[in-house]
Amino acid sequence: MHYIRVLYISSRLFPLLLIFFFLEFSSASVAGRKKTKLKDVDVGVKQRVVKHFLTKEKVIPDEIERRLKDVFGNETRDVRDVAGSEERLSWTLDSRSQERVIIQFLTAEGAGPKEVFERLRAVFGKSLPLSTIQRWSRQFRAGRTSVGDLPRNSNLPHTSTK
Hints:
Layout: E1 2-9, E2 16-23, E3 25-26, E4 35-36, H1 43-56, H2 61-72, H3 79-82, H4 86-92, H5 95-108, H6 113-124, H7 130-141
Antiparallel strand pairs: 1-2, 3-4
Helix pairs in contact: 1-2, 1-5, 5-7, 6-7
């Protein structure tokens, strides 16, 4: 679906009209099929992160596959296809994003923020703060599908050399 967004930016000299054309793509990720403008992580990468986490929790491969299918549905990749080393994961995704993927997965399974916090700490020896996990869990339960950061405000003050 195509959308046109019109944004007026005030200026001392004249009003400037900017028209942004953009497409909203359906995101096919864990929390649902909502439309999003946020950049998201590939579903295969998400599944690799979850598989790595569940393996460290000592979950057997058949159970991992069942849980992936429960959450990812028809987008589930074969467990052998999503296998990857911890080093390879770190090339693909920073640790903060990996933790967000796990928060998203465990929230979709029905785990509360405190349980997610404890499980992350048990597996990795560290975790995002509980308040951060609570915020992300709340957003995922509300329908957010992306683990990416929201776009930052680009209206930062700039100086001129003239």
